[in-house]
Specification:
Low-confidence stretches: none
Number of domains: 2
CATH architecture of the largest domain: 3-Layer(aba) Sandwich
Shape: globular
CATH class of the largest domain: Alpha Beta
Strand content: 15-25%
Helix content: 40-55%
Structural class: alpha/beta
Mean pLDDT: 94
Radius of gyration: 18 Å
CATH topology of the largest domain: Rossmann fold
Strand order of the largest sheet: 1-2-10-7-8-9
Largest sheet: 6 strands, mixed
Number of helices: 13
Order of helices and strands: HEEHHEHEHEHEHEHEHHEHHEH
């Protein structure tokens, strides 16, 4: 049975922080120097996590919060790579088996890392993965399902990032996070709004996959009919589900749509300024911030992950 949607309370986030301590890094918040006339931008470098992506926060909290009986069945999730690595990493910590229903077009780097963490891989099409995510079930799998975004504990785990941002930069005016399924922005937004309600929380989506922007324009959850695959494989879904629409509405103030060229440039900028690698989805928030649409700042952008094949990364940033 799918549990009803309920708000992420600040107590949920604080309890999550205790559960994930020792497994998840407290990532640095680094100021990006873009020179005069540019917004004041800070980078929350989640690409430095042990799995090189923020999903380890939610995955660790979700698996840690399961009962011994639930974990004993083994855990499974659906992923283009980052959630799968997070769940596999957390499952390994508890000594339980994991399975990932993996989108077959996921970068080889992500597939190899999931296998290295002990996950069994079930390759499926993007369409099949999205259907299983909406159904909270997949044929032939009967372990304990850890949803990659529509899961209260998963989202509360991501909220721990919001606590860190406010501790490091109490006067933040805007926080930007990429939107894929919506779990990241819901978690971070819930913590930010609970402790600094005047701060704005904005999403970032690629123009090739911007269902949340469409949903906001039309006043309800919508399917993005012009969806196109791109190197931004960790964000930009085909639709906003009804449940995630309910979760995002109270804590998200809007979203900024960016081009693939702007995203590539943000990937290059992160590499140049911090000497770290961001995947396409990881650079979306910065691409949104440098448009100026989020204001002068202080703006914190979540660099959500850095799992990308190095050859592909080099090809993208060299253009």
């Amino acid at each position: 049975m799918i549990e009803p949607v309920r708000p992420i309370a600040i107590e949920d986030v604080e309890q999550a922080r205790e559960r994930i301590a020792g497994t998840v890094l407290r990532t640095p918040l680094v100021k990006l120097d873009l020179g005069g006339g540019s917004p004041e931008i800070w980078l929350k470098l989640e690409n430095l996590q042990p799995t090189n992506a923020y999903k380890i926060r939610g995955a660790t909290n979700a698996v840690a919060h399961l009962s011994d009986e639930q974990r004993a069945k083994g855990v499974w999730t659906i992923s283009a790579g980052n959630a799968g690595q997070g769940v596999a990493y957390a499952a390994r910590q508890f000594g339980v088996p994991s399975t990932v229903v993996a989108i077959e077009t996921a970068p080889q780097t992500k597939l190899e890392r999931m296998r290295a963490l002990g996950a069994a891989i079930v390759p499926v099409s993007y369409e099949q993965a999205w259907q299983s995510a909406e159904a909270h079930a997949h044929p032939g799998l009967d372990g304990t399902f850890v949803h990659p975004f529509d899961n209260h504990d998963f989202i509360a785990g991501h909220g721990t990032m919001g606590l860190e941002i406010l501790e490091d930069l109490p006067d933040v005016r805007t926080v930007i996070a990429a939107i894929g399924g919506g779990g990241l922005i819901t978690g971070v937004g819930s913590a930010i709004k609970a402790l600094r309600p005047e701060a704005k929380v904005l999403g970032a989506e690629p123009e090739t996959a911007a269902p949340y922007a469409l949903s906001l324009r039309e006043g309800g959850p919508r399917r993005f009919t012009d969806w196109q695959p791109s190197f931004v494989d960790g964000a930009g879904g085909k639709s906003v589900t009804e449940r995630m629409w309910q979760r995002m509405q109270p804590v998200v103030d809007g979203t900024i749509t960016v081009t693939l060229d702007q995203t590539r440039e943000a990937m290059r900028l992160i590499a140049e300024k911090t000497r770290t690698i961001a995947e396409g989805a990881g650079a979306l928030a910065l691409a949104a911030a440098v448009t100026g649409e989020a204001g002068d700042g202080p703006v914190v952008v979540v660099v959500s992950g850095g799992n990308i094949d190095l050859a592909k990364f080099a090809e993208l940033v060299a253009r």
